[in-house]
Inverse folding.
C-alpha cells in the first residue's frame, strides 16, 4: 500500500528526492512519516506531514535541509533531501498513521507504534 522510491548514491552536498505513493488507504485524514535506519542503528523518525492540516514535523538533524511535501491528487508524499551528509546514509521508509493529531501530539510523531502501514524502504547512500 506504500511504495517508496528515489533512493540512490549521491555525493556529500548533493540532493535526492524520495517519493512515497499511498494506495488502498481510504481514511483521508492521515499523516505520513519518513523514517530511516542506518547500519547498526535503530530506526528514527525524520519528518512527518499531516494530511489533516498539512502541519509538518522535523527531526533537528534534518531541519533546514530536508523538505516534506505532498500531492493529494497523486496520493504521493515527497522527501526533498538537500545538503546531504554521510550521516544521512540509511534505508528510508515511509509510513502512514491514522492517528488523529491529538494522539500524535500526545505520544510524539516519531512513535512507530502509531504507524499502521509501512513501505518497503529505499536505500540512500551518501559518499564523502
Amino acid at each position: 500500500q506504500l511504495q517508496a522510491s528515489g533512493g540512490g548514491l549521491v555525493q556529500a552536498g548533493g540532493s535526492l528526492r524520495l517519493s512515497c505513493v499511498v494506495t488502498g488507504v481510504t481514511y483521508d485524514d492521515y499523516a505520513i512519516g519518513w523514517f530511516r535506519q542506518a547500519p547498526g542503528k535503530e530506526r528514527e523518525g525524520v519528518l512527518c506531514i499531516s494530511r489533516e492540516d498539512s502541519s509538518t514535523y522535523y527531526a533537528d538533524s534534518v531541519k533546514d535541509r530536508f523538505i516534506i511535501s505532498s500531492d493529494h491528487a497523486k496520493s504521493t508524499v515527497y522527501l526533498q533531501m538537500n545538503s546531504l551528509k554521510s550521516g544521512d546514509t540509511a534505508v528510508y521508509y515511509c509510513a502512514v498513521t491514522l492517528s488523529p493529531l491529538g494522539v500524535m501530539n500526545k505520544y510524539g510523531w516519531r512513535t512507530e507504534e502509531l504507524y499502521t502501514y509501512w513501505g518497503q524502504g529505499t536505500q540512500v547512500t551518501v559518499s564523502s
User: Anything to note?
Assistant: The longest helix spans residues 101-107. The CA atoms of residues 7 and 116 lie 23 Å apart. DSSP finds one helix and eleven strands in the chain. The two ends are 34 Å apart (CA to CA).
